[in-house]
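Table 4 source record.
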Amino acid sequence: MTASMSRADWLAEEIRADREYALRCAESDDPIERVQASRRSREADAKQAELEALADGAHLSLRLTGRGIRHHSAPLAVVKGLIQQIETLADEFGADMLVAPAAAGSHVIEVTAAHEPSLFEDDARFDPQVAFTDAAHVLLALAPPPLGDSERWEASVEQVASELSPAALLAARHFVEVLADHHVTVDLGLRSRRSAGRAHLTDEGAAFVRRVLSNVERDVELVEYSGVLSGFTKGSGRFEIEVDGDEVSGRVPKSLRTAADGVPIGSRVVVSVEKVTTTLRSGSIREHLRLVDISQLS
């Protein structure tokens, strides 16, 4: 591949060549050519499926530059550190993420959503790309807003922090620590069927975000609710129960995706959750729930 050829470009070129060979040799007098034609036709079908998956899946790219990057090479500690935090965020949001082939010619980490078609294409709650983009937006939201001052930026980062579980908040903080400690700048790009965005965060900006995240005040307590299960979506990582006429909802981490298997919607359940309460610098209070356990009442 050349520096300007992406994985999708390469697949398209390979598919074209395989199809041409299969068409030209399918009726050949040479039995070896006929076998090769059949094989390349199957390979073209497999590559076509991968190409369609790449086009359909959500995609996050991280272009790394700065003093910590040597030419097109990045220290192992940087790549490992960033990928570990992305993985933790993905798990907390119930998302599947895969490391995709990187573009040649620069150090770019490519992350893509696992190709998992939704049974309910028109309802965002069931779309597996929703969890992917929610997790990716956490990283994009750490960057400074356009023409924003430091107070506005601090408030924006605090708002992001208020919506994260303890594990996700720690992952976000470690993510910016890697950038700050290794003097790396990251350009983030997100694209999916439902969302797109770009962000730029320098090592100095990452150090600022680290200070803000380190000073976030929050309280975590374990709470139980009894009610009627009204929703549990593996694709977008959400649960919903009705408690005395009110809806209680929260996130389902990846490790608990199967926690409600065999529990019918409409049945009475008990859920244990982490109730995370964050106090912002403005005095505002934000609360969110993270599933810990769910069981059906007999």
